[in-house]
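Aim 2, interim progress. The first record below pairs a target sequence with its structure tokens.
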Amino acid sequence: MADDGTTETAVNHMRATMPARPGRLRRIRYSFECLGWRAAMTELANGGDAPESDSEFDAQHGTDTAGSVEPGDLGIGNAESRKLAIRYLPSPSRVTSWMLERIGVEPRDYSFVDLGCGKGRVLLVAAQQPFHKIVGVEISTDLAAIARQNIARFRPSSGQVRAIAVENTDVRKFTMPPGNLLIHMYHPFDPAVSAAVFARLAAIQDLPQRRVVVAYLTYTQSVSSVAEMFAASGWLRLLRYEESIRGRYNWLFYEGTPTA
């Protein structure tokens, strides 16, 4: 049967939306900056430890953010939402700190929103910066409760921490804070859910117009689907892509101004 060109068109579209993969030296340099020397050397040698085994943050702060939770154990009642969820994994605090130092925003001019915040580790790291507001959104009632407990326990050595709110709701129903936004995501759900979130955000006509910056952390296997989702949004453009040695901690930075 003759090829009608559909397959070739799909392949070309995927190539057009995929960010250029950094060279090996850049991936190594990023991994050492982001993970630290010890973790990066472990990554180079044998693939490194799985994200769920990273308990250093909890040992330091007496919190409960480590481990993993499969979608079926998140306590999501809605079958469709449960199907689109992805298991909870904690982001290493160094990875979040690396992003905050390089994302290029002035915290006082932005609200920080973590979509799919899980047990709240990223929120706790971000709360040490002077963001206007800090909000986590989590559909799992169990994880949202743990996040709130962690917030109550958290006492950083600096003694400086911003107030944190955790909203226990579907991100597609969540109303973003007004003004400029830094949105963090650690591949928390199917890109179809993300597409709905950014379509809803684009429909809000704020005056003056807000700037939206997205820091999306994911692994190599999902980069193509995530990049395609952002390209389809029509208003978010890629600023930067960084890939770790083993592809576990890849950052996609996007920015844009919502337009209906």
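The second target in this work package is listed in the same format:
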Amino acid sequence: MKLRTAQNRLKIEHSIIDGVRPLLERLLEETPEIRSIIPGVIRRVRDARGEVKVHVTVPVGNGWKAIALSAGARQELFVSTAMTKEELEKAIEKASSR
């Protein structure tokens, strides 16, 4: 049941780069304060190798914009939440370590 809840909060309108989807699903499962995550544009980059990394960047109208780096690409993530930047970064770090 939790996985279905996480999927309803992860809006799949675009592709998601390799390795990021499991991280986002864990993040949603562990953090009920996040209303939804909407993956955005994917762009190729040279420095996105190794483990999946997610950086919270700037505030947006209803939460935060983040950038995921993985498999030679970067993807924008729009996170709808009332959490502070520090709280969101801690939640992402916790989900990444699992």
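The CA atoms of residues 42 and 76 lie 7 Å apart. This observation will shape the mutagenesis plan for the next reporting period.
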